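My current task is to audit a protein record that another person submitted. Thanks in advance; the entry in question is below:
***
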Amino acid sequence: MRLTCLSFALYLAVSSAFAQDASTAVSPPVEDTGTLAEAPYRIDIPADWNGELVVLAHGFEPVGVPRETPWPADPATPMFTSGGYAVAQSGYATQGWAVRDGVADSERLRAHFVQRHGQPKRTWFVGMSMGGGIAIATIEQQAAHYDGALSLCGANLPGDVLANELFTSLVAFDALFSSGDGAAAHRLSDPASPTLGQGEVMDIVSAALPRDTEATTSLAAKLEVPADALPGIIGLHYLVFRDMVTRAGGMPVDNGAVRYTGFGDDAAFNAAVPRYAGDAKAMDYATSAPALTGRLQKPLVLLDNADDPTIAPRFRPVYARRAQGAAIPPLTLPAAPGGHCNFSGEQVQDAFRVLTGWVETGARPDR
């Protein structure tokens, strides 16, 4: 799976008058690649196509990572083509926290598929990591075009919730491991400070942790990760948050009145936390990246990993709670063993069969 967020440790409607029905389409195999609105894409249709389509959304891709041309097949592709499904995947027009692009580019690609290859009998959306949030946003916003969605190891937090969680990691590190000179330029949380690479942030965190084992233990417990995972997690949170700031055009979080708890001496911690005023437009942007309302009208299956430091335990039930009152509440499967997106092909296929069986029978699975 295209999950470059783990590099430290461990992705238009088209008039029906122009669309043929997939059940009458000429037998493939087909490999269709190209670019749509600056987003590279790839479509794979197996020779034994069952007439159904899986739109596949990849995870976080750091800005500047070289891209292959044509867009390569995700390692998850054979998990679906082996079952007869066509797979369409967009590379998105931009890298980084490209959730809004991911929704728009994936929908544009689905429409392209219909125009060029026919209207599928059923269409499914499957996303991994950042793509999991894209899958949920898509099934909320484009419900008419999809029969159901599967979010695997998904970053399934509404954008404003995610921005605050990422930012908390950074201000907590700055408060617990102050440089001592008080210089804002040395704070990971300050959006005005010079931008660092992920590796540089990891080096800063790795050097700081041994200075205070008690603070290290407190920070790891609060973030729900092993202490040795802190450099990677904080490095990732920094990378995503800084990209959010760039996309939003300002500070997407306001912590001026926030009282933090759970970091040891709460009074001392809150006195040490750097405070920043949020920009209203930037905060609105964060809320839309992704905008997850919980208003579901189609089946959604969620599957996480039990030992995933990237999608920490406190993140996993957030969307399911928000969607409890939905017309069709999501189904959360028991967490699979392993770290972030460490699924076997069989586990992915089993989760997908839960989704397709739910739709085919009309009965919510008893899981």
The two ends are 26 Å apart (CA to CA). The chain has eleven helices and eight strands.
